[in-house]
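In these records, each integer encodes one residue's backbone shape. Here is one protein:

___
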Amino acid sequence: MKPPLPRLHAVTDERVARRADLADVASALAAGGGADLALHVRGRMLTGLEHYEVAIRLSAYPPTHLFVNDRLDIALATGATGVQLGWGSLLPEDARRLDPEWWIGKSVHDLAEAEAARTEGADYLLVGPVFATPATPTTPTHPKRPPLGPGALGAITRLGLPVVAIGGITPERVREVKAAGAYGVAAIRALWDAVEPTVAARRMIEELVA
């Protein structure tokens, strides 16, 4: 039986995955997030071995949950709780054949994509970018997409699937996306680059469950 879907998702990118202090920050996030935290292994430019090694490292912080983006082989090999699929991945219904206990999410960027993901059988939606993100060369989540804003996010939440908001999410903005109907939030910089990762994770979860 799979556990509840985590409300807070700490997503890596290539920069985060290769940081020397990855384990220290992951441990601090785990202290603040506990079972409500998913550590997402994501990095399109990582080699398969790098992706696997990061997944192994991030699986070592129970009661947090390991989620793997796109690489279903690595998710299987590391006993991940969930997978996050992009538009070049398998359909959710096909991924479910590999492990029916996975939480299977789909990344979407508008209402039409969200409706399609629901039809395909996704368990939850990762929706973004909700807010603008700084256009830096190494860390933007969706640098070329205009932000959806809370209004469009709210329309997607009304489809009935749990929605995890991403893109420009900070502790200060969690309450706003929750008011729009979001179940949870995901972030890269606001968590991995936080001065106090434990405090940042705890604050976001407190805002989500308040």
